[in-house]
């Protein structure tokens, strides 16, 4: 028979449509207003915290839909937005500053759907609402950190090469090395030129000056922006904000968009969690009590210890957190919490050189946060307060390298929090919020209603036209069009990182027309074959076969354009390109294979077919 599909093709169509429908299903359940509670600084989320949350809500007349504890985070599901806001005020007062109480939206799909990876489609900032920040990187602070690190590396290099020097200090934007004689100047100049090729070296008597070249300065600034973008993205992901948009804008600015975050103040707290990290030696040669009375020795500084007390540390920075590539919490041989650290090769060499002669000495981990003060400068920028505190002090048992551990970090929860911060990375420089914009959930809901109205209007009009103009074959095309929408939503829900935006909805609307276009080409070819006197069965076969090349050419060229848009575009352009590309693939499947399967099943088995309703 001319128009007969093998059984495996029918099964393939059924399986593809069933899987698409299954993963599109969570979108019917929507999302619950929720509150997400996580530990901040010395706080710890436990089952007792969950009990405290439940009692606080019940005593104030709020009955949550559910309270769960997972991955050290409590999620409280509520009935309405008003109840959500009321519960946030209650829990803020109950839990205090040791916890972050953030508004959120939690998927409401059944547990069995979640168990197989079924999640609702993630919505972008323009549809879900959220906050938009324009942040500026403090390049002066970044360059100062680099110069401090440069001083340490120059000293280590000169000691390693056995070159004697009088001092190595910062001098403005340069590093100034004072040596003992002309021979040492020549030797140091040769060694440092090779070791620090991004710097220009000049001599004046016994002084060698290292200045950052213009090209290296631009490269360093670009690296600072790129590193901060990566770290901001990691930190926001670790803190549970879904599908953030974090990208560079201009020379020294970063755009951060957090969909679903309904509270600007909480969003600032999330961004304020970004920090730097330093390892320093404890000053054991001077008396801590003298320093606490105001007599701080030269070359050292007094730091506060998290949890209480103070510690005297050397000014020399052994290592900063930007060399950490991985960190995880665990327990030592005495079942005490610890943090296991993995450094990159450069960091491992620096740590090895620094600890070679300091076995038995204590080393401190200094955690530095930049917290918004709530005040602004004359030019409108938000001021940040630099908060530094010692989070752990551990004795160096052996010469350290790329892998080592931090002990004495307090509770297991403290170890987990510190490992999270180390994994997410340390900013190379502080950032300041220079612009802030909020997209309310109501505006996002209005965008969704408008977008859905446009899609449904176009969809219904196309259904009516196809049903009237192509009769029964038009109904087949309508079934394929409906299936196409289901597959687009299912694939978008299944792809990690895929986010639906307003331009993405425009892409879906465009694919509605493109999907019908393929069916129009096929049906018109069938009509032409019938006019030329072919039998209905022959007309169906030749119609599909002859239209295939035209459909493939048109869709493949459009797919290439969508791929280019995704590769070179940003933000809204990518959102449009993603839905367009997915829609092209699904429309080709439904138009060529899906409708052919239906047509073959209905008309292909009729041996005495004399007329087609087309």
UniProtKB/TrEMBL annotation:
UniProt xrefs under SUPFAM superfamilies: Multidrug efflux transporter AcrB transmembrane domain
Name listed for the protein in its UniProt record: Protein translocase subunit SecD
Domain SecDF P1 head subdomain: 306-429
Keyword tags: Cell membrane, Membrane, Protein transport, Translocation, Transmembrane, Transmembrane helix, Transport
Subcellular location: Cell membrane
PANTHER family: PROTEIN TRANSLOCASE SUBUNIT SECD (PTHR30081:SF1), PROTEIN-EXPORT MEMBRANE PROTEIN SEC (PTHR30081)
Pfam family name, one: SecDF_P1_head
Family: Belongs to the SecD/SecF family. SecD subfamily.
Assembly and interaction partners: Forms a complex with SecF. Part of the essential Sec protein translocation apparatus which comprises SecA, SecYEG and auxiliary proteins SecDF-YajC and YidC.
Segments passing through the bilayer: 451-470, 475-495, 501-523, 544-568, 580-603
């Amino acid at each position: 028979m001319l128009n007969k599909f093998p059984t495996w093709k029918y099964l393939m169509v059924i399986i593809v449509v069933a899987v698409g429908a299954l993963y599109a299903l969570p979108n019917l359940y929507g999302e619950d207003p929720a509150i997400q509670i996580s530990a901040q600084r010395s706080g710890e989320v436990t089952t007792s915290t969950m009990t405290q949350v439940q009692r606080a809500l019940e005593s104030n007349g709020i009955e949550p839909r559910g309270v769960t504890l997972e991955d050290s985070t409590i999620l409280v599901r509520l009935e309405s937005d008003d109840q959500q806001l009321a519960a946030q005020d209650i829990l803020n007062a109950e839990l205090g500053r040791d916890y972050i109480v953030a508004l959120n939206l939690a998927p409401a799909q059944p547990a069995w759907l979640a168990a197989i990876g079924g999640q609702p489609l993630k919505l972008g900032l323009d549809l879900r609402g959220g906050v938009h920040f324009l942040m500026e990187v403090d390049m002066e602070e970044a360059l100062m950190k680099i110069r401090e690190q440069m001083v340490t590396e120059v000293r280590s290099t000169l000691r390693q090469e056995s070159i004697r020097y009088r001092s190595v200090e910062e001098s403005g934007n340069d590093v100034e090395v004072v040596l003992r004689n002309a021979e040492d100047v020549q030797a140091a100049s040769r060694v440092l030129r090779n070791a620090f090729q991004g710097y220009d070296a000049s001599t004046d008597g016994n002084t060698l000056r290292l200045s950052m070249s213009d090209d290296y300065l631009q490269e360093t600034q670009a690296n600072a922006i790129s590193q901060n973008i990566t770290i901001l993205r990691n930190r926001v992901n670790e803190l549970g904000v879904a599908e953030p948009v974090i990208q560079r804008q201009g020379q020294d600015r970063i755009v951060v968009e957090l969909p679903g975050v309904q509270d600007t103040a909480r969003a600032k707290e999330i961004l304020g969690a970004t920090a730097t990290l330093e390892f320093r030696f404890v000053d054991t040669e001077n008396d801590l009590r003298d320093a606490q009375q105001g007599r701080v020795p030269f070359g050292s500084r007094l730091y506060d210890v998290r949890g209480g007390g103070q510690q005297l540390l050397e000014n020399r920075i052994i290592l900063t957190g930007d060399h950490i590539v991985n960190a995880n919490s665990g327990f030592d041989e005495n079942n005490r919490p610890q943090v296991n650290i993995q450094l990159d090769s450069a960091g491992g060499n620096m740590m090895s050189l620094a600890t070679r002669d300091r076995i038995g000495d204590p080393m401190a981990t200094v955690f530095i946060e930049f917290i918004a003060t709530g005040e602004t400068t004359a030019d409108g920028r938000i001021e940040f307060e630099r908060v530094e505190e010692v989070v752990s002090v551990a004795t160096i048992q052996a010469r350290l390298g790329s892998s080592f551990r931090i002990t004495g970090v307090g509770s297991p929860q403290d170890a987990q929090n510190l490992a999270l911060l180390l994994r997410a990375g340390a900013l190379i420089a502080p950032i300041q919020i220079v612009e802030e914009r909020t997209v309310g959930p109501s505006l996002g809901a209005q965008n969704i209603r408008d977008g859905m109205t446009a899609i449904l209007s176009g969809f219904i009009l196309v259904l009516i036209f196809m049903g009237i103009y192509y009769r029964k074959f038009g109904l087949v095309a309508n079934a394929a069009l409906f299936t196409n929408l289901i597959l687009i939503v299912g694939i978008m829900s299944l792809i990690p990182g895929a986010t639906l935006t307003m331009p993405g909805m425009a892409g879906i609307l465009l694919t509605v027309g493109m999907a019908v276009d393929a069916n129009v080409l096929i049906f018109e070819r069938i009509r032409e074959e019938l006019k030329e006197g072919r039998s209905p069965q022959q007309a169906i076969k030749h119609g599909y076969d002859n239209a295939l090349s035209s459909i493939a050419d048109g869709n493949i060229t459009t797919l290439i354009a969508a791929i280019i848009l995704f590769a070179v575009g940003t933000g809204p352009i990518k959102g449009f390109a993603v839905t367009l590309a997915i829609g092209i693939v699904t429309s080709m499947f439904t138009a060529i294979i899906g409708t052919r399967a239906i047509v073959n099943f209905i008309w292909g088995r009729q041996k005495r077919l004399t007329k087609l309703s087309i």
